[in-house]
Amino acid sequence: MNLHLKEFSIPQEILKWGDSQPEHQRQHIGTHIDCYNLSNIELPSEINVKVIDVRKLDIIDVTILENIKIKENSFVIFRTGYLEQYGYGSEEYFNSKASPYLTNELIDKLLDLNTKLIGIDLSGIQHGKNHVAIDKYVENRKCYVVENICNLDKVPSDFKANLKWFQLKDATAIKVEIETI
What we know:
By secondary structure, this protein is α/β, with parallel strands linked by helices. The chain has one domain (7-180): Glucose Oxidase, domain 1, CATH 3.50.30.50. It is 20% helix and 25% strand. The protein has helices spanning 12-19, 23-26, 82-86, 104-112, 130-140, and strands at residues 32-34, 46-53, 59-60, 75-79, 101-102, 117-120, 144-147, 158-166, 173-180. Strand 8 and strand 9 (173-180) form a beta hairpin. The longest helix is centred in the last third of the chain and has 11 residues, at 130-140. The chain is globular and about 45 Å long. This is Cyclase family protein. Pfam families: Cyclase. InterPro entries: KFase/CYL (IPR007325), KFase_sf (IPR037175).
């Protein structure tokens, strides 16, 4: 099962907008790793994944990790249900005022657990002015944020995945492909 958006899943108006942007900006369309500090991403091609269901939560805080085992060097994905419910590219999907977000305390806990990737089925783990700042903070701790993950309703909460990514010079986002094993 693929967990990345494929081009046919992306609305034409977003693809058209991307065509009018510099190549590095287009990388923010679809499923991608944010790397605003322009780090050279080094990740394993195979990784343990934990999906945490946070549907119906507006604020996703550290209490969500109670009774959940997170493996070191893993990929933790939060399923808010937004991509499933509204579809990528919709006004509701990109409405950051209504979108759930991860608290700083939760992010710090994940970083302390040596998580390699933090993923979400939204356009960010935090929104507005905090979006880029939290992505840089996470990146400084050798972890990365993966946005716009799909098909979380079709996978178990624990599995392994293969990763492939395509890093362009000076891009602040890296296209990523995520396939279950």
